[in-house]
Amino acid sequence: MTSTLAAGGYAATTAADGGVLSYAWLMIALPLLGAAVLLLGGKRTNAWGHWLAIAAALSSFVWAVLSLGQLLGRAPEERSVTVHVYQWIKVGTFDIDLSLLIDPLSMTFALLITGVGSLIHIYSVGYMAHDENRRRFFAYLNLFVAAMLVLVLADNYAVLFLGWEGVGLASYLLIGFWQHKPAAAVAAKKAFLINRVGDIGLLVSIMLLFTTFGTVTFHPVFESVDGAGRGLMTAVGLLLLLGACGKSAQLPLQAWLLDAMEGPTPVSALIHAATMVTAGVYLIVRSGPIFEAAPTAQLVVTIVGAATLLAGAIIGCAKDDIKKALAGSTMSQIGYMTLAAGLGPIGYAAAIAHLVTHGFFKAGLFLGAGSVMHAMNDEVDMRRYGGLRTVMPVTFATFGVGYLAIIGVPFLSGWWTKEGIIQAAFDSGGLTGQILGWVTVLGAGLTAFYMSRIMFLTFFGTKRWAKDANPHESPAVMTVPMIILAIGSAALGAVLVVNYTLANFLAPVVGAPAHEFDLVHMLTSPYSLAALVLMIVGVAYAWVRYANDKVPVTAPKGNFITVAAREELYGNAINEGLFMRPGQQLTRATVAFDDHGVDGVVTGIARSVRAASENLRLTQTGFARSYALTMLFGAAVVVVTTLGVNLA
Amino acid sequence: MIPLSLSETTLPTVTTQAPDLDYWLLSPLLVVFAAGVIGVIVEAFVPAQRRYSIQTALAMVAVGVAFVLTLVQVGALPADSAGLTLAFATVVVDRPSLFFQGVILALALASLLLIAERRDGESAFTGQAAAVPGSEEERAHVLAGSQHTEVYPLVMFAVLGMQLFTAANDFLTMFIALEVMSLPLYLLCGLARRRRLFSQEAALKYFLLGAFSSAFFLFGIAMVYGYAGAVEFAAVRAAGSSGGLIDGGEPLLLIGIAMIGVGMLFKVGTVPFHNWKPDVYQGAPTPITALMASGTLVAAFGAMLRVFYVAFGTTVAQWRPMLWVVAILTMVVAAVIAVTQRDIKRLLAYSSVVHAGFILTAVVAANADGLTGAMFYLAAYGFTTVGAFAIVTLVRNPDNGAEAGDLTQWAGLGRTSPFLAASLGLFLLAFAGIPLTSGFIGKFAVFEAAVAAGATPLVVVGVLSSAVTAFFYVRIIVLMFFAEPAENAPRVLKPGILTGTTVGLGVAATLLLGILPGPVLEHVIPQPAAETSEAVAAEHTAADSLFAR
Question: Which residue spans traverse the membrane (chain B)?
């Protein structure tokens, strides 16, 4: 595998030369300002706060579009622009600037984040209409957008880490937004803790990079990776992967994502489907040169991706909670992207393309799920849905488009980008390529099954509603964003993939596509046909099982695979057995040692000082005569000391 | 026998010459002195109801003017001059003395604000000190609203004594300054409005023990005179290096150093000469306690530094072991006793004793860093302690309006009076030497100087003692902020503008000196010239000044 990047692609960055690009920091500053106004303004901003937040997100999006325009006006090799904001840290040789890197990769993310983010902001006006803390919710959403933009626009790992922690914070705050629900509070804590594990990996890898190269800025680091040892690069790559696993809910740090569905649904759509959870993929693609210098790390990335792809799909097949089923699907789809990112330059563009289309259709699916929940008194159990297609036509239609896109119906967005990944996997060659390829094909079949299951349980079959359910279509403020996302789910894939538009745009960063765009090959390759067949099988099996009136309202016992999948493949049990309980034991042991050992010594000293104090204060009799005597004694000591030392 | 062949030039006998006084350079002293004298005249001739306003204005203006004059003189002192002597070389004007005088005047002003504070027309002072406590006469005076405005001239004389104490250039002038400072304070201690017997007992004790210590001081002067044949610091210093008037006279010097040391150590209040401090601090009216704990301590250490650095600057090896013993005793014993104190004023008194021990480590250092460190420490501690006592005046018993000294009553104060408790918390953290407060920088400065002078064991004791003191300071903070309010919860007065200013001054100084000590250490505290800094103690030639240039 030749490195197409280290040689030339990353070599040059140019400084911003005025205009829109020089003020790229406005993209971050606007939502950050919105968050600050909403959080500091307090109740005064209740009435108009959400509109301010939307304005902030939208203007950030507009600025991103303008920046893209200016970027496209440049020659492809000049599309890496550094925007220096200010010097952040300077301690001796440790010198970090807060600089932004505007290049095709970062702009792709910026557009996705601000675009989908703005839509979800608008949707939330309707979804959170009856929540008394709506202003705080919008403040957090703005904060998230700002932090996510810091993450993707950073031109060095330190600033990236700043954004990384920022989105972690926003995610924590939003998962636990309904903190009065114990499950939400616990889920927020769980997400935070598991993410800390990944964060440590990222942090250590940044430290390693700094000690090795003396800088953490992307370009200088990538230019000198060839000079560093392969072992070191493997270590850095694996640590980066650990960070990516935490943020993107990949095995073995996947357990938090399903619980994170306790957060409000717009949060699930924006953070836990479309943007934040894809940060790990961004990290791997951005750090491409490091992984290319460490084939072992790349292999591990593909294995993690493949394993998560299957695990997420299996979990998605068994969950009755609509959001958790979709969360399993998210895991699985990010598994696709991770796998592609691990393939190296031939997979990067495919990974990013799938990431973008997934951002649209998965956000649309979540918003649809939110619309259903909104209509069904926040019921999440799909066994309590059924036959909703007639009462919620808009939701049904938009959800349906997203559904067709994700399962890979030809010429819809998901098909274009998933085919890209399948093709890249087989193209990588060798036995590994074959295995990975067939995993992605199998995944396509599983995707078709679990998504059809969701679709049929929700919108088809008999009505299994709770007695007090009175479903209705959502207001326009919610359905319009869903419609826009549905249009993206249908058409965006073709726009991005035909003639490799996105791949060519990304080429200065991730390398040019390996071969010409060939639609006929895409349609007729045996792997593509196999995926299509498996998809049809999956849909058909789901139709037989779930699109009828025999679906029980309570879940049947199920075989051991179903039980395991419901238990999220025992991920929580493993975490609890391996880490939580030993950790609690250690805590208890430490506390015991502190109580009896350390405190014993400390309180012993304190007790003896106190006893000495009680005795010494007896000298303070209150009688002037005894004070005078003490003074006389003291004078004698002073005289004797002076004489004794000098004359003896 | 001691030869009484007094040298011809130093005889302070009657001269026919009129004394040639530089009134301009003496003006900070003279202004305060004049205010005291005018205050006495005001007492004699002005109607009683108008005295309060005239006296407070007079005292504050005088102290303020004297402070400004001090600053002007700092600016007027030629840059290459180590200092000047005035009035037959009895008074010295150099940068350290001007610094000490400035600090004393600022602290006196802060204390004056507390002294002038009145609640419903009641000051902290008794209406008629001569009335027997609990008698009909006393009640009559209370009902008539009598006031002791003599307090102000007395304070003026005390402040004058403090100023002169740090500026004296010979032992006799210093002794006079000591008495001028002490006598008004003895009186002031007995003037508390509430718990008058307690206050009078404190005054009497202070007077008896102070007189006792003055006797030691005077006896020491006599011994040193016998050794050096002079009382001027420069002459004593010269004698220390040349060997004195007579062969084998060294015991005279040693006993003299020890006795003068006893007098000094009594004034700063180190173990075992500290017994008066808790009783007097507790019994005295709290504004006077604030003045004593800040101004008197600064003056006493200013004088002590001058005596030990200048007069005994050539005999460091002779007095250092003695001060080692006293410093260790002070830091250990006072810190341990403070642990079981239950009254806030007594606790602050013991705290003052421990701090005297810490500053003593800078005296032991006997180098330029020790001098600057002690100066910083004194200024920092002075403002913090004035602020702390100002807060004590605000917390009263609900039934009789006396100050609520019992610490159990302070529980939960952080909830009922958060600002007051937070201010006191800050002062306590500064006493404990926590970073970002002035106390940390001060401790660091004196300990650093002591280590540089080879007194590392002393510093180890100091740090351990700090740990013990931190315990009882933090315990009060915990009590205020994390304990349930006591049943006999005190009534917290709303600070008036006077007390509020003093507390604010304390908070501001504590934070400013803690967060930005650099400018103060560089510009405000006088620095010896770099090339002579190491040699200040050993090679002091221009002995009229604390700094050789």
Answer: 26-46, 57-77, 96-116, 148-168, 171-191, 206-226, 253-273, 297-317, 321-341, 347-367, 375-395, 421-441, 466-486, 496-516
Cis peptide before A264 (omega within 30 of 0): no
Q: Which of B271, B317, B336 sits opposite A613 (nearest CB)?
A: B336
What is this structure's pTM?
0.64
User: What's the one-letter identity of residue A393?
Assistant: P
A611 in reach of chain B (CB within 8 A): no
Q: Domain total for chain B?
A: 1
Which tens digit of pLDDT belongs to each residue from A570-627? 877 888 888 788 888 888 888 888 888 888 888 888 888 888 888 888 888 888 899 9
With contact defined as beta carbons under 8 Å apart, do A382 and A321 qualify? yes
Tell me how many residue pairs between chain A and chain B have CB atoms under 8 A apart.
99
Predicted pLDDT of residue B219 = 95
CA atoms within 13 A on the CB side of A358: 31
Please report the sign of the dihedral spanned by the C-alpha atoms of residue B241, residue B242, residue B243, residue B244. negative
B31: tokens are 């202004």
User: Which residue, among B128, B155, B124, has the nearest Cα to B55 in the 3D structure?
Assistant: B155
Percent composition of chain B: helix, strand, coil (DSSP 3-state, to 5): 70, 5, 25
Q: Is the pLDDT of residue B379 over 90?
A: yes
Q: Read out DSSP for A501-559?
A: HHHHHHHHHH---SS---HHHHHHSHHHHHHHHHHHHHHHHHHHHHSSTT--SSPP---
B17 found inside a domain: no
Among A625, A646, A647, most B C-beta atoms within 10 A, so best to mutate, is: A646
CA neighbor of A137 nearest in space, from A274, A314, A266: A266
Task: Tokens 């200016």: give the residue.
Answer: A70
In this structure, the number of other CB atoms found within 10 A of the CB of residue B181 comes to 25
Backbone angles phi, psi at A255, to 5 degrees: -65, -20
How far is it, in rounded angstroms, from Cα B400 to Cα B411?
19
B9: pLDDT strictly greater than 50: no
Give the mean model confidence (pLDDT) for residues B19-41: 91
| Helix/strand/coil percentages in chain A, nearest 5 | 75, 5, 20
Interstrand relation of A14-15 and A81-91 (parallel, antiparallel or unpaired): parallel
**pLDDT band at residue B122, thresholds of 50, 70 and 90?**
confident
Residue B10 is assigned to a structural domain of this protein: no
B212 with A628: Cβ contact below 8 A: yes
Whether B253 is covered by a domain: the verdict is yes
The predicted-structure confidence for B133-144, as pLDDT tens digits, reads as follows 888 988 888 888
- Nearest to B256, CA basis, from B308, B211, B324: B308
Name A449's Cβ contacts closer than 8 Å, sequence gap at least 6: A317, A538, A539, A541, A542
Q: Which domain holds residue B453?
A: 22-546
**Is residue A502 within 8 Å of A413, Cβ to Cβ?**
no
Q: Average pLDDT for residues A415-424, to the nearest whole number?
A: 90
Does residue B382 lie within any of the structural domains?
yes
Nearest-Cα distance to chain A for B339, in Å, is 6
Select from B201, B275, B478 the residue whose CB has the most chain A CBs within 10 Å, as the one to mutate to test that interface.
B275
Substitution target from A601, A613, A615, A621 for chain B, most B beta carbons within 10 A:
A613
Element (H, E) at A334: helix A322-342
Nearest C-alpha in A relative to B330: A634
The ipTM value here is: 0.87
Helix (H) or strand (E) holding A99: strand A94-102
> Do B339 and A642 make contact, defined as CB atoms within 8 angstroms?
no
Please give the average per-residue pLDDT across A498-526, as a whole number.
Answer: 84
- Bridge partners (DSSP) of residue B403 are B396
Chain B residue with CA closest to A603: the answer is: B471
Q: What is the pLDDT of residue B543?
A: 39
Chain A's closest residue to B272, CA to CA, is A634
